[in-house]
Structures are given as C-alpha cells and as structure tokens.
C-alpha cells in the first residue's frame, strides 16, 4: 500500500498580518506622484497668499513716500491696458461718467490718439453712380413716304452711315405723284387763261384749283423749290427724292432698290448725336439731394488721363425700378465731333451741397449697426464713449443731430482701443456687482467681508460641534514606503516582505522514474 502525502510539496505563501496591507511594487510610483502633486499644490497656495499680502502692503502709501495719486471708484482695483487707468481719480472731470478711462500722455502718443473738434462745416456730398450713354430721343427721326410707290435709287445703303442735313436718301416712283403734277400744270394753265375773265366766279374757280393741287404736292413732301421748278419748266418729274432732316447716323434701314413701299413702312431711322444723354441711377434716400438744372460730371473708366465732361440734369424719372429700388436721372452733354458713343458705361458724379451744419468726422464715428457713438476726449487725459445721433453721411463728415455740442473734442484715431478698454471696465463692474463682497474699491482686499475674531459656536449660543475620536481611525493604508514617508502620517513601521512568486509545476518536464504503482483499493473500506 502506498501512502499519499497530505502536505503540498510547495511552500505556502506568507499571509499579511491583520490590519496591515501589502504595498505592491507597481503602485509605489503612483503613490509618489500623488504625494508630489499635493506638496506642489500646498507650495503654490502658500506662495500666492504671500504675494497677495505683499501686494497689499506695497499698495499702502507710507508717510515717507511722495504724494501718490489715489485711485478710487468702483473699478480702482482693476488694471486694463498698460498706461490706461480705469475709474475716477482726484483729477477726473465732473462730466465724466462711470465708463471713463484715463490714458497717460505717453500712452496716447504710443497708440496714436488724434482728436477733432465738433464744429459747423459746409457739408458737400458727392453721389457716384454708374451711367450709360444713350441717344437723345428728341433728336431722332423715322423716314416714311406719304405715297405708295417703288424705290428707284438708294443713296444710303448701310446702317451706321453718317448723313448730313439735306443729303438725299432715296428716290421713289409713284403714279399718284405723276398724276398730281399733271393736275398742277393744268390748273396753272387754266389760271392763266381764266384769270382775265370778267366773271368773278370763273376767276375764283381757277385760283382754287391751282391752290388745291399745289397744296397736295406740298403734303407729299414736295418742296417749294421743286414746285417752282415744275412751274418754270412744265416737265413732270417721274420720281420723288427724300432728304435727311438733320445731321446724324443711320440706325435702321428697311428699304432696297426696286422695293414697293407704302406709307406705313419705316424706310430709315436716323439719330442726331450732337447732344447725347447719360442715364444714371440713384438710391431713394439720395433723391432730396438732386434737382433739375444741377451740375453733373461723367468719367470714363478707360480714360487714363481722368478726363471729365460737365453737363446738367434735365430730367428725373417719376418711377422707381422695382428690382433695383433706384430712380433714373437723365443728364445731357454736348457731343462735338461725335466722340461719345451710345451704350458706353461711364461714372456719373453729382455734387450736392447740404449747407452749413454741425458735423463730426466720419472716422470718429463707431457704427455698431443699431447705434452710433464716439469717444469724447475730456480734460486731464480722460476719454468716455458717448452715443450720438447723426444724419445722412457726406463725403467726409456726419451731420450731428444729437449727443454732441459745438466745441466737443472726439477721438478720430485709435478710438477702437479706447472703446475696448471702456467695455472691459463695464464688464468688470457688472461682474463685481453680481458677486457679493467682491467690491475691490481701493485696490486691496478690504472690500472682501471676512470674519475677524469669530467666537466659538458654544459662546454664540449654538450647539457645540460634534467631537471626533481620531484614535479609532486607522492610518491610510499603503502610505508608508519602507520607512520613508511624510511626517504626521500614521503608516506601518514594518512591512512583511512580499513572498516570492513560485511558478506552477510543469508536469510535462517530469518523466516517471518507473511504472506507476498500482493501488489496491480492495483493502479500503467503503
């Protein structure tokens, strides 16, 4: 019979003593990091407290120091940009508000502060808009014949050709014209024969017939010279010649040689370019600034020499374009030599005078969209934002409606830096007012309400605080690192060494020395 050993061949690991915890080697760096962070935090807090106390002591003027400027006011303790002091001082003007800031002269020169005086000025407005050259509609003509016929000869045969006044355009043959000329010659002969009659009615009839035929020829655009020539020669003209009524260019041509034309057909369309129009567009708010007869100028974008032509406004159109919300304005310009071409884009300049008004420079006005305000320069280096009301802008100024008086000085340069400091002061004031006990009026910590000598709770009538028995508390486990720790921390003095890690047995490496002994279970009791 083989006896089975009851004890394990491997040593049992040592168990830690009750009340003590084993510190793993891997947790030691983490515990050290926690302790280091705690030490650094305590050091920073102590250093900050010392700095605050030292600053308060340095801010208190001593009896041996010179006269120092005392900063008072709701924001005396707040410091903004370098060289800018918020709040009020002993030299603060009476008209300064709670948003006033003080800027030293050196700082003003550094940031480039410039001021301008609000005064009466002559306000000139220049309206610049885009215009387009157009034909003078009062100097355009369409050529129609008053009789039907056939075109025999054409003198102007293409569009754009320049024609002179009295230049022939075309000739037309009309049977009606020939018959009317014959009637005129007959009436002329009858007037000569019956003009010496002793019967008044006969003489009057001959005169009436001659006058009617002559008038018919005149209505058909037969000139007096042509009628006189017909009367002198007695020869009927087979065709009628039509002439240009003025100097201009041909815009349309709808007739050809041999074409049959009627009175409703437009044979030619002519335009006189000695005067040309410029059609410009202005906004609705600019309508009160212009009037008929006002001077205007045009510039050509392609003209490098900056040539300008002067004209006058002759018409303001009565309707507003629904798409662009603009009003058309017509300006007339002389066009000697026909240099100006229609459909050319130009720049229209209309100068308007609004008279003498109280004005502020444009660059001094800060426009937020809903409001406009300026930075007013006060005496003793103080600056304050002030909301104003202005009129329509001119070339360089705004008309002052309210908020400023003549003689006020406003900042025209670097006003955005001053405005940002003023807004910062307002924000700090709102924050301090919203936090109880945070009014740092004198630049120290006197505004903070702190209890000085507070009596114990039992002397103030309240119940005593509960007593804590610290003897029952165990020390923080794991805070003793081999005898090296922080003072005041209860840590175990001695820690049992960690047991060695014994690897599990590998039965594959062990071979049996002999055949495994057989166990006789027959001898064992059930």
Structure commentary:
The protein is an alpha+beta fold. Among the domains are: 101-122 and 356-425, conserved putative lor/sdh protein from methanococcus maripaludis s2 fold; 126-136 and 272-354, Elongation Factor Tu (Ef-tu), domain 3 (Beta Barrel); 144-271, OB fold (Dihydrolipoamide Acetyltransferase, E2P), CATH 2.40.50.100. The chain has six helices and 22 strands. A six-stranded antiparallel β-barrel has the order 4-13-16-15-14-17. Helix 3 runs antiparallel to helix 4 (200-219). The chain starts with 27 loop residues before the first helix and ends in a 92-residue tail after the last helix. Mean pLDDT is 74; it is low at 18-22, 55-81, 438-453, 473-496, 507-518 and 520-526.
Outline of this structure?
This protein is α+β, with helices and mostly antiparallel strands and 526 residues long. Helix content is 21%, strand content 28%.
């Amino acid at each position: 019979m083989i006896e089975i050993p009851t004890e394990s061949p491997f040593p049992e690991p040592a168990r830690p003593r009750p009340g003590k915890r084993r510190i793993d080697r891997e947790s030691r760096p983490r515990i050290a990091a926690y302790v280091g962070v705690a030490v650094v935090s305590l050091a920073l807090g102590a250093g900050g407290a010392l700095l605050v106390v030292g600053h308060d002591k340095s801010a208190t003027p001593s009896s041996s120091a010179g006269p120092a400027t005392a900063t008072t006011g709701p924001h005396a303790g707040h410091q903004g940009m370098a060289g800018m002091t918020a709040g009020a001082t002993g030299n603060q003007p009476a008209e300064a508000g709670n948003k006033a800031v003080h800027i030293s002269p050196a700082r003003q020169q550094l940031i480039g502060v410039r001021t301008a005086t609000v005064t009466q000025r002559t306000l000139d407005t220049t309206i610049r808009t885009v215009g387009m050259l157009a034909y003078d509609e009062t100097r355009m003509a369409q050529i129609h014949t008053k009789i039907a016929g056939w075109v025999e000869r054409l003198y102007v045969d293409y569009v754009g050709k320049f024609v002179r006044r009295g230049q022939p355009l075309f000739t037309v043959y009309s049977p009606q014209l020939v018959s009317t000329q014959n009637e005129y010659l007959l009436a002329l002969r009858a007037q000569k024969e019956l003009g010496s009659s002793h019967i008044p009615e006969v003489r009057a009839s001959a005169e009436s017939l001659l006058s009617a035929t002559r008038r018919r020829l005149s209505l058909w655009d037969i000139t007096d010279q042509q009628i006189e020539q017909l009367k002198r020669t007695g020869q009927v003209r087979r065709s009628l010649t039509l002439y240009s009524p003025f100097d201009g260019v041909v815009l349309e041509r709808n007739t050809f040689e041999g074409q049959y034309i009627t009175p409703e057909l437009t044979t030619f369309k002519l335009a006189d370019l000695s005067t040309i129009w410029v059609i410009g567009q202005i906004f609705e708010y600019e309508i009160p600034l212009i009037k008929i007869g006002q001077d205007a100028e045009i510039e050509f974008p392609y003209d490098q020499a900056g040539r300008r032509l002067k004209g006058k406004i002759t018409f303001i159109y009565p309707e507003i374009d629904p798409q662009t919300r603009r009003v058309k304005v017509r300006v007339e310009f002389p066009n000697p030599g026909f240099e100006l071409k229609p459909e050319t884009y130009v720049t229209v300049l209309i100068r308007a005078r609004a008279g003498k008004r109280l004005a502020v420079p444009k660059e001094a006005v800060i426009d937020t969209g809903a409001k406009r305000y300026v930075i007013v320069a006060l005496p003793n280096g103080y600056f304050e934002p002030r909301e104003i009301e202005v009129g329509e802008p001119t070339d360089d100024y705004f008309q002052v409606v309210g908020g400023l008086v003549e003689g006020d000085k406003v900042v025209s340069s670097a006003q955005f830096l001053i405005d940002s400091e003023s807004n910062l002061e307002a924000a700090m004031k709102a924050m301090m007012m919203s936090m109880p006990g945070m009014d740092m009026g004198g630049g120290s910590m006197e505004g903070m309400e702190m209890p000085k000598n507070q009596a114990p709770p039992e002397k103030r009538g309240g119940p005593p605080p509960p007593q804590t028995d610290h003897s029952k508390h165990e020390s923080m486990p794991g805070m003793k690192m081999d005898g090296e720790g922080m003072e005041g921390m209860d840590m175990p003095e001695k820690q049992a060494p960690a047991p060695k890690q014994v690897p599990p047995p590998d039965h594959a490496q062990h071979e049996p020395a002999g055949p495994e002994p057989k166990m006789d279970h027959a001898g064992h009791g059930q």
